[in-house]
Amino acid sequence: MTDGTPRSLAGENPFPLALWAEAVYSRRAIPATLATGSPAPGTGSAEPGLLPHGPRLPLAPPPLHLAPTPGSPATLADPAVLSALLHYSYGLLQHDLTPGGWPLHRAVASARCRYPSELTLVSPTAAFRFDPLHHQLIMQTASVTSRQAADPGVSRFAVITSRFARTARLYGDYAPRLCAQEAGMLLGAVHLVAAALGLRTRPGQDQETLHGLCANLLPAGAEHPMGYLEILRPVKHPGDRSWPPPDLASVLRARHSGAALFDPEPVLSPKALLTDLGAALAAAPFTDFSCHLLVQRVTGFSPGHYVHSDGHLRQVSDGDPQTSLEQIGQTEGRVSMNFRSTACTAYIAVRRGAAVARYGADAFRRLHLTAGAAAHLLCVAAARQGLAARVHNGYDAAAAERLLGLAPGEETVLFQVAIGTARPGAAFRVPVVF
């Protein structure tokens, strides 16, 4: 620790190469106080990361459905399109009324609902920070003298940044891993919602472009650049597509991670689950990953190990994968959740060796964007079938590599997503309506 800040948050590089060993393999960076919900040592108890000051622009009420505008190409100049893109990517969708629970849930999963990510629209003349709580935009910077000349409808980039301190309050030096995971999921969310609205995006990981977009935008040391999506001219005739589903808005409102204790019902899930998983992964913004599925209870599929790669699903081996699930899903010598009742569990693997050789320490950020975007699509596909999907880091990365047959020293699992039929929980949630 330095001046009360976790050491991994203090330097200019938030993702040193040591994070692969500490956060992905050993998980030593997770503080013991996490079990009690107490702040991690040295992080204090004040809520960090207030939104910037600036003129506020109210957004139109988000629509109940996501679909391209009939008769004309989608554009952010349409208030309904702008509102829908922001709300269904990272807005508040559910309100938990249970006392002592996490009251507000956004469109993507987040560790303990800390939501460290920030979403900013960057136009040629200004930047607009999204405020999900009030469903508004805050104009951050402008190179023009007239407020009317700064129009979020001409934004060319959606930029994702992260306030590590929000998550470090509970997770200490493990925060960079969780923040990188969520940034990837948010990138996948923006990409997905844009496609449903008829917008086109080009997701980006390039560090030089990212820092250029964030220049003079972020408070020093408080926020880290993570990723971006370029907003392109829409396609006039998008053609037939199997993903995203036409009922995406209702699916996103229904998406959840299950109860605090993930203990699904041991029942068969519909055959369409794997069909939707395949369609979702085929539409992922990045392609340099593989998804391993340990299937237990899916109608029409025998239990076993399946791999989705290059747009195809193939079976690697058959037989009950329970033993492998419980060997992989170890935390400090014990199984970290009830894998015996899941429908299937997904493991998203990336080529760490090649990425580190090419990008050095920045491979950590890049590969978590890749894997996180795919993980969000898995969660959405599960929600379409009425299932819960829990992103859970309680796994042994070395055991996963061995039991899934990954290339030694080259491939690494970055996400474990358990999918199943959730039991009724104690929480009572209602939709958020603006």
Q: Features of this protein?
A:
434 residues, alpha+beta, NADH Oxidase, seven-stranded antiparallel sheet, six-stranded antiparallel sheet
Structure report:
- It contains twelve helices and 18 strands.
- It is α+β, with helices and mostly antiparallel strands and 434 residues long.
- It folds into two domains: 7-45 and 55-232, NADH Oxidase, CATH 3.40.109.10; 248-420, NADH Oxidase, CATH 3.40.109.
- Strands 1-6-5-4-7-9-8 form a seven-stranded antiparallel β-sheet, sandwiched between helices. A six-stranded antiparallel β-sheet has the order 12-11-10-15-17-16, sandwiched between helices. The chain has a three-stranded antiparallel β-sheet with strand order 3-2-18.
- A hairpin with a 2-residue loop joins strand 13 (330-331) and strand 14 (334-335).
- Helix 3 (79-90) runs antiparallel to helix 5, helix 4 (164-171) packs across helix 5 (175-197) and helix 5 (175-197) crosses helix 11 (363-384).
- The protein starts with 6 loop residues before the first helix and ends with a strand.
- The relative contact order is 0.15.
- Mean pLDDT is 88; it is low at 1-11 and 144-148.
- Kindly report how far apart the N and C termini lie: 42 Å
CATH superfamily of the largest domain: NADH Oxidase
Helix/strand/pairing class, anyone?
A: alpha+beta
- The total number of structural domains is 2
Radius of gyration: 21 Å
- The rough form would be described as globular
Series of secondary-structure elements, N-terminal to C-terminal: HHEHEEEEEEHHEHEHHEEEHEEEHHEHEE
Mean pLDDT across every amino acid position: 88
Strand arrangement in the largest pleated sheet: 1-6-5-4-7-9-8
Tell me the fraction of residues in β-strands, as a range. Answer: 15-25%
CATH topology tier name of the largest domain: NADH Oxidase
Reported for the largest beta sheet, the result is: 7 strands, antiparallel
List segments where confidence is low: pLDDT < 50 over at least 5 consecutive residues.
1-11, 144-148
